[in-house]
Prior knowledge:
This protein folds into four domains: 50-175, Beta-Lactamase, CATH 3.30.450.20; 187-278, Beta-Lactamase (2-Layer Sandwich); 316-437, Single alpha-helices involved in coiled-coils or other helix-helix interfaces (Up-down Bundle); 445-587, Heat Shock Protein 90. The protein contains 17 helices and 17 strands. It has helices spanning 3-42, 45-68, 71-79, 82-95, 128-134, 173-185, 207-220, 280-315, 317-330, 345-367, 373-401, 408-437, 449-457, 461-467, 485-502, 533-536, 555-565; strands spanning 100-104, 110-112, 139-145, 148-159, 162-172, 188-193, 196-200, 243-250, 253-263, 269-278, 445-448, 470-475, 480-483, 508-516, 519-526, 569-574, 580-587. The strands form four sheets. A five-stranded antiparallel beta sheet has the order 2-1-5-4-3. A hairpin with a 2-residue loop joins β14 (508-516) and β15 (519-526). The two termini are 53 Å apart.
Amino acid sequence: MLFRTRLFVSMTTVVVFLVVVAVIVVGNKFRNNAIEQITSELQNEHRTVDRFQQLTISSLISLAVNISQDSRLRGSIATGDRATITQAVEDISKNYPSDLLWVLSPQGTVITRNGRPVLQQEVLDNVAVVHDAISGYDSGDIWMVNGHLYNIAAVPIRGGNVPIAILVMGQEFEHGFVDRFSELTGKQLAFVENGHIFACSNPDADRVKLHDAVKEMFSNHRIPTQPLPNLPVDPANKDKKYQSSIIFKLASEEYVGEIFTLSDISGKMLSYGLVYSSLQPALRQLRKIQQALLLIGILAVLVSILASFITARQVTGPIERLVQLSSKLGQGAMETEIKSERNDEIGRLASALNEMRVSLLQARANLIQNERLSTIGKMASSIIHDFKQPITAVYGYIDLMALPATTLENRKQFRDNIFQQIDRMIGMINELLDFAKGDSRLNKRPIMLSAFVNTLKAPFENECKTKQISLKEELVWDGKVNIDAGRVQRGLENIIRNAVQVLPSGGEITITAENRQNNVRISIHDNGPGIPDEIRDKIFDPFVTFGKKEGTGLGLAVAHKVVTEHGGTITVESQSGNGTTFTIELPIEPELGGNA
Length: 596
């Protein structure tokens, strides 16, 4: 892939990433704000339920008073006949629908029941509303009986000014109360007892799903379900309620809810109430905002592509010219001189390429007589091909340095990276020159083995840190060795570089050194994928490469040549999938000795 294409892809990826992050952040913020707003609206809804409850009971008391004045009812009570009274109550129930309509004696004894058979005891004088009616007052309350909630009204039935009976009238919450509340407030309402829903404003089809949702949220919020607690009530503050805000899912729709307690007039807790509202309207608005952000993101991507195209053309012109000249050189057109008037790193690279071109011309002339003419062409083509990657890297770092947003620290880092790439290309050129010469003179000097190993590790520490590769040393022996340090270092660096290129993140490279019968043995071990059997025997031949995208294919050949010129040996042990170990043995000259 061309550098310019990679630049387009990188910038587009960054912009798309920022847009996605913006969409997620805005979405979460909007959703949280919507939840906070709905929660704030719901926090006082339990008071609305209380007021609506009081209005319902007041309306029920008014209706009970009207029924108590019905002449048929009072006439039947005057007869004292239970059957007559029962018939009159049944007739009245047809005109005044209710869930229960009872007639009690002035002392609170049940005369007749019409409706659901609750509170089966015959004498109800100890029940609060009945006691008030016996005393001559109109009264209302809430009953929880057999898992059902009722609004209750109890009024005295008078014959003249004398109470002749008590009328108790009730309406179950399930029958109209929650639905009317939902219609008036736009909020959903449900009541829960022992973890089960017995009244809700949702359609019957959602009852099971709502029950499961309530059961789960009660468990998640650690709300007691059975038995219901009798909360202590301060007579001076009976409006004190238990409250908890929750978020739950019903089918595929999210809701915000507020749980509160429902108590009778004595303050005894009867059930939990749940008033809740859907998040869907807010989420629909959120989707519109996200779509707008996506449109803005697409425009930003288009602008970034245009900007990267213009920047690439303005900044990378000199690099493109070098790439073109290098391509011609790789195709064999080595007569064209590579010139550059620049005094910076690009100029140094051009000079190095021109020196390589001259060296290749000389090498080609020399190799004609010793049957290496065909090899030099392969060498030139290979190294020029491998020059494209570091040149492209230099191209990219220059482009990044030109960006206005690039900090001074990053510019220094990019400059150092450019120098590393140029040094790498100069090293490949030196490999080519060494191999092309066929022979060379060694410049041996004594050097401490530990210092040599540290120098050997230094060029790879940043790359290993970036790729999360462990590069460590284990010196069993240290002392002076008489070697051409520069050439041996370049040869062993080829081995380490191969390992760094093929190792995945988390890999390990270990350099060990020990004294073996006046030979220093240096082992370079990695836990990478290993070397396939089919190329293991020719791994030190020129242009043999495997498992890496970069390199001339001369690295191991150069390493083998340097070691043998020192009178040493180099061997390799590897199994596919189980790592590779290169072992280098170099003689220690007796007069140098060493420290164990």
